[in-house]
Amino acid sequence: MLAAGAPGVAGGVADVSESQRLLRLSQLNTAAIALSHSLADERADMAAYVATGRGARKPPAAAHGNTVGRGVSEEERARVDRQTAEVTADAAVLDTGDSTDLIRVTGDLSSALASLPKVRQGALAGPGDAKAAFDAYTPLIDALDAVGGALARALPSRASDADTAAGPALATAVEDASATRGQLVAALTAGGTSAALAGGAQQSRTGELAALADFNAAATQQARTRYAQTVTGADVATAESYLHRLTAKGYLTAADNRLRTADVDAALAARVDRMRAVQSSLAGADTTRLTRLRDDDVTALEIHAAVVACCALIALGLGVRTARSLTRPLGRLLRFATAHADGDRTVTVPVDSHDEFAAVARAVDRISAEAAGLRTEAAEREQERERLSAAREKAVAERAQLRRRFAAERDQLEQRLTAERDELRQRLTTERDDLLLQLHATRQEARDRQGGLEAEKQALTARLVALENTARTTYVSLSLRTLALVERQLALIEGLEEREQDPDQLQTLFRLDHLATRMRRNSESLLVLAGAETGGGAQARPVPLLDVVRAAVSEIERYERVRIASLPRTRLAGFAADDTSHVLAELLENATAFSPPDADVRISGWLLENGEVMLSIEDTGIGMPQARLAEANALLADAHPDDSAVTGGLGLHLVARMAGRHGVRVQLREHKQGGVTAVIVLPHALLARPDDDGRGEQRHDTAELTDVTPQLPEPRRAVAPEPPAEHARPQEAPVPADAAEAPRTTGKGLPKRVPRSSGLSGEPAARLGGGPVDADALRRRLGGFAQGLQAGRRDAEAEAKTSEPSEEARG
Fold first, then answer.
1. Paired sense of beta strands 571-572 and 543-544, if any
2. What region does 647 belong to: left with phi over 0, alpha with psi -120 to 50, or beta?
3. Which position among 76, 225, 627, 637 has the lowest Cβ density within 10 Å, counted as fewest Cβ atoms?
């Protein structure tokens, strides 16, 4: 009974504890509402006081005996301090239970109220303006209003109430109305010079209307009627007209500034007071309702406990009576059974009823009778046992006789089995020898077959190696042919460029030239993947790092999206310039391919303290998962990646190979703002010393480069063509004076195309202009570069003919 009633009692105790906690929280909410109203008034007075220059200007007179802009009196501060101390004490002793929401709200409330002296000091003597003083009070008021929201969320289903749920919305509306009043009065006190106060008042007015809409949607009809009947009257109508006029715009006009601040403050204060009265009445109703709920829970618990106690007493009485009715018959039954066990058959059945004890007594009587019969039967069986014993002795004699006869027969059988076993052993030995001979012959035959299979395996392995070499040679041959064809294609395109007069056709030919350059890079990539060297076009002298980066930019599809930031003024060894440019081109291609089409890709560089050069390629794409990023970095760290793994990501595989040739370290990193950053570190061995070319060539000054694509010239009237004087360079960075002395240049100092090289002194294709362009002007602009390319292509064709594979290699 107690176990059955315990859960109900425990549930009642839990309900009482919960209703008591809700009542304490409701009382804390009522005190917090009163304190928030006082702090809102203090905030408005402080803001108006700061708006007057902290007493520097005489404020206008206000209604109701107060003076706008005079600050807060000592009596008002003392009253607010008392309210603050009470709310802080109530929040500290509030039973939050296991609710993380209540713990957070009370903690925030205590922290906010602790900062009130600092907020006052900042408003009275701080450097901030009226808007800053006003905003400093807002977190305190928000922390107080949060108690009402915590109360609405903490209500269980049995205590839910629509008006309580609508309380946070009404609190927000009251706070926004008070904020609107304080900011408008401060703005008018300052003479309308603070646009921040006027704009803040407009935002608060908008928030108030939205909060009132939420209140009307959640509250009951009775609460809405109470609000409509309370917030009404001439003062409210006047306040509404002021609000409509002063918050229609985010600033105050000259006509607005002519309004009497005292009248505006009085009207708005009257409206806010009526709204606060509705809020306080709803909070008081919550306290009354939760007090009634607590009393009902206490009454229910008392009734439940009384019922359980009565039931327990009744059950105890019934148990005692039942026990006595059992022990008395058991005593009589015990005495009856003891007498029968001692052989006293004169004792009769001790009960004359028909209950269970009488049945047990009769059963004991029957058992005694059966025991007497069993004793008689046992005597008869003893006689039978003696007769069986005599028969057993006779059987023993017969068994001894049979044992002697069986022993004689066993000896005869053992002799016969021994003879047969010897004969079988001899026959098995002969057969075993024959099987051993056959097994030896079989093993020898297996060894012979294994030797033949090994020889066949070696032959197949040699054939497989030959096929792989043939395939690799074929790939190399096809790549070299493709390179030669691309160079010829470039020569044809250049001839068309020299004869073309139409600017649009010239732009199309330049695009074809750029596409052929990318095709050449793809062919070089195939040579690298096939294991062939691509250093046929290596520079003999050091190359400026700027030219290496420009060459890489010119070999990608979306070159116009690349922006070059600052680069160190250093040069790269000629033997590594092509491969380094190729590595940069592959990484730039990936960056432009996996980033938005309208986003820029940024490349920059630094000279490290240890003398190495670090380059960074940043994009703003979708980035890479961590697993894929780790896999890519593992591939880039391997100087000799496995060829069997080249199923996807050929660009990274190619970067790993070419970077591994020269000890260049490449790593992909996740960018904080999104996208991926590729970091390239050039070691000491690839950086040229200043005296490598024998003349101490000056380094490029590449500080703050923003673009690498030359702009087309302005349209002008065509004139007679004349030999170009120089190739157009980008204006973002100066070109060193001795850059024309680089190897493989024309007579005018311009770079030539070299087969299987990246054209490290070349420029990327010109960016297309939006208006008409004069063909002769464009040809004069790029004439020097075209002549250099023509000479380079002739050299490339000659070298390609000498490097073409023989007919036997072609298969």
1. antiparallel
2. alpha
3. 627
